[in-house]
Specification:
Oligomer: heterodimer
Number of strands of chain A: 11
Helix content of chain A: under 10%
Strand content of chain A: over 45%
Strand content of chain B: over 45%
Structural class of chain A: mainly beta
Shape of chain A: globular
Radius of gyration of chain A: 13 Å
Structural class of chain B: mainly beta
Order of helices and strands of chain B: EEEEEEEEEEE
Number of strands of chain B: 11
Order of helices and strands of chain A: EEEEEEEEEEE
Largest sheet of chain B: 7 strands, mixed
Largest interface: A-B, 25 and 26 residues
Shape of chain B: globular
Helix content of chain B: under 10%
Number of helices of chain B: 0
Radius of gyration of chain B: 13 Å
């Protein structure tokens, strides 16, 4: 079992709709959670970080964390064609040095 | 805006040759990560440095890969000899406390 799991997609979303991405993790003591966006052929770009249970909003993005259920999600509101990318979920362990592990990514395709 | 610098951006090498990648993290970032990303997969951690010390290299194929960060600043990842299966994107990231930021990566093609 991978330590960070995501559906690979592709997730097809009409322009203007909400894209909902999910991620589960296996290490119960993980403390830091991140979402990265990666365009084809480019490197990952950090878009959201969340550390405590609940919701965190930044512009059109909302990250949700539920540590009891060991999942973290990302909502993209008013999806735009420029949001078409692969979204990577990353989890940082609580080791003193903080190992950062990634899921395999969910491809999002926003259709006009 | 501070960035993680990586070079080269692209590298084509023949199998059995040696290849090296360089990374300069954001100034002041003590943690440096090297990842390998195969097309269609997520980044896989190869090695993690805290200052000049290796804190995790459990997934580094040590028979052919080596990494160093001698002065705790920039870092070099080497492959010798390269194999066809090493073709991938090699990503460097750095972190000061929690958030990690990536460089542009090196696309390696082994022929």
């Amino acid at each position: 079992q991978k330590e960070v799991e995501q559906n690979s997609g592709p997730l097809s979303v009409p322009e203007g709709a909400i894209a909902s991405l999910n991620c589960t993790y296996s290490d119960r003591v993980s403390q830091s959670f991140f979402w990265y966006r990666q365009y084809s052929g480019k490197s990952p770009e950090l878009i959201m970080s969340i550390y405590s249970n609940g919701d965190k909003e930044d512009g059109r993005f909302t990250a949700q964390l539920n540590k009891a259920s060991q999942y973290v999600s990302l909502l993209i509101r008013d999806s735009q064609p420029s949001d078409s990318a692969t979204y990577l979920c990353a989890v940082k362990t609580t080791d003193s040095w903080g190992k950062l592990q990634f899921g395999s990514g969910t491809q999002v395709v926003v259709t006009p | 805006e501070a960035e993680v610098a990586q070079s080269p951006r692209y590298k084509i090498t023949e199998k059995s040759q040696a290849v090296a990648f360089w990374c300069d993290p954001i100034s002041g970032h003590a943690t440096l990560y090297w990842y390998r990303q195969i097309l269609g997969q997520g980044p896989e951690l190869l090695v993690q440095f805290q200052d000049e010390s290796v804190v995790d290299d459990s997934q580094l194929p040590k028979d052919r890969f080596s990494a160093e960060r001698l002065k705790g600043v920039d870092s070099t990842l080497k492959i010798q000899p390269a194999e066809l299966g090493d073709s991938a994107m090699y990503l460097c990231a750095s972190s000061q406390k929690s958030e990690a930021f990536f460089g542009q990566g090196t696309r390696l093609t082994v022929v």
